[in-house]
Amino acid sequence: MSSGAYLPFALPEIGEEEITEVVDSLRSGWITTGPKAQRFEKDFAAAVGGGVGAVSCNSATAGLHLALEALGVGPGDQVLTTPYTFTATAEVVRYLGADPVFADIDAHTLNLDPRAAAAVAAQCPRLKALLPVHIAGQCCDMDALSALARERGVPMVEDAAHSFPATFGGRPVGTLSEVTVFSFYATKTITTGEGGMVVSRDEAVLQRVRTMRLHGIDRNVFDRYTSNAPRWYYEVLAPGFKYNMTDIAAALGIQQLKKAHRFLDRRAAIARMYTQALAGLPLRVPSVARPADVHSWHLYVIQLELESLTIDRARFIELMAEHGISCSVHFIPLHVQPYWRDRYGLKPESFPRAFDAYQRAVSLPIYTRMSDADVERVSRTVRSIVTRFAR
Fold first, then answer.
1. Which residues make Cβ contacts (< 8 Å) with residue 147, sequence separation at least 6?
2. What whole-number distance in Å separates Cα of residue 321 and Cα of residue 335?
3. Pick the catalytic residue: 36, 42, 128, 188?
4. What is the number of alpha carbons within 13 Å of residue 76 lying toward its C-beta?
């Protein structure tokens, strides 16, 4: 039934510049955390702007863990977040012996609803931090969430895994709160294969993250092994982790970063093509919540109007696959996942907007290597399926 070659859900765009940078690292003999990681951190901080510093790590999950640890989250504390996210957002809270508490989402943006968050926060006597997630690259309502954080006297850590280089009200994500964590996983808007970045203006937080990302040692390997004077001595200040980014990964990031705004322009163009082509169908298309915001378009998530269709979401994805087009679902909410459901006694109706969005959501392919013809093919196939199965 396929009308063309298989179209994957996501593909990175890797050019000769990235290959050359990686080969340079391999030939240098320095392939773990070293000069390329330091350069990537400096370049990334400059790209975000606003006087921030940046510390690289081997994943955004590691970055979130390090950020919360640096802010003092520990056993018995509570961290308020969304159930509509990947499990990494909440699991790092458990790493520290704390408990995530969930609040429902805004049905339009799929982001944490500030009013729901405020109601939940009022019932949290041990609240230690807010942890919003910018779903798909659309910023949360940071004015409202920042006001809530100030009211409760707690810091905010942004899970910005989807959100480089997004903005809120003209301000770059990374400059809006105490700490922001970005992802460079293979499917993200820029990639290092695996990797993440912790961004903050608070040098004490950044220094704690630097120390804890490599076993709690007070000096990094590059400094110890490249000085003219012997610097073999180091001290272990805390039982840290093994979360450092390699220079091979950073080499990719250095060149990907240079292309970030070109990548953004292409993703935004694909999103516009989808939105125009899918107009008038029994489904909801995503949009930019506020005119001054920049959406990074990591994902393009449609929501099927199931009341107007004779098929469910699972069958829709099967039919797309039969036409050679891979789709995905973002996300299966945490409150229906066995661990979170059972530990906290949650039910699907505990967060009805998150559960409803989950039942409808389909992520269409959106990546820079897609041609206009690819986008048209996806749009045509979606239109054909929902028209065929409309009530």
1. none
2. 28
3. 188
4. 2
Q: Which residue type, as a one-letter code, is found at position 303? A: Q
Q: Which residues contact 248 (CB under 8 A, 6 or more apart)?
A: 22, 25, 26, 31, 36
Sign of the CA dihedral 61, 242, 57, 22?
Answer: negative
The residue written with tokens 């765009």 in the block is 13
Partners of residue 200 on adjacent β-strands = 53, 179
Sequential DSSP letters for 352-370: HHHHHHHHHEEEEP--TT-
Assess whether pLDDT exceeds 80 at residue 234.
Answer: yes
List strands edge to edge, sheet with 196-200: 53-57, 196-200, 179-183, 157-160
Specify burial of residue 81 (Cβ count, 10 A radius: 0-12, 13-18, 19+): buried
Is the predicted pLDDT of residue 315 greater than 60, yes or no?
Answer: yes
Shortest CA distance to 93 belongs to which of 75, 110, 112?
75
Give the mean pLDDT of 372-382: 98
- Edge-to-edge strand order for the sheet containing 361-364? 283-284, 300-304, 361-364
State the average pLDDT over residues 251-269: 98
Query: Distance between CA atoms of 373 and 110, rounded to whole angstroms?
Result: 29
pLDDT on residue 218: 85
Dihedral sign from CA coordinates of 37, 40, 46, 47:
negative
Q: What is the pLDDT of residue 265?
A: 98
Q: Check the CA dihedral 360-338-119-97 and report its sign.
A: negative
Per the annotation, the verdict on 128 as an active-site residue is: no
Residue with tokens 């590691």: 62
Q: How far apart are CA 48 and CA 65, in angstroms?
A: 21
Instruction: State how far Cα 90 lies from the chain centre.
Output: 13
CA Rg value for the chain? 22
Cα distances (angstroms) measured from residue 352 to each of 106, 266, 273, 359, 363: 11, 34, 31, 11, 20
Question: DSSP alpha helices (H): ranges in the chain?
Answer: 16-28, 35-48, 60-70, 88-95, 114-121, 142-152, 203-212, 221-226, 247-258, 260-277, 313-322, 338-344, 352-360, 372-388
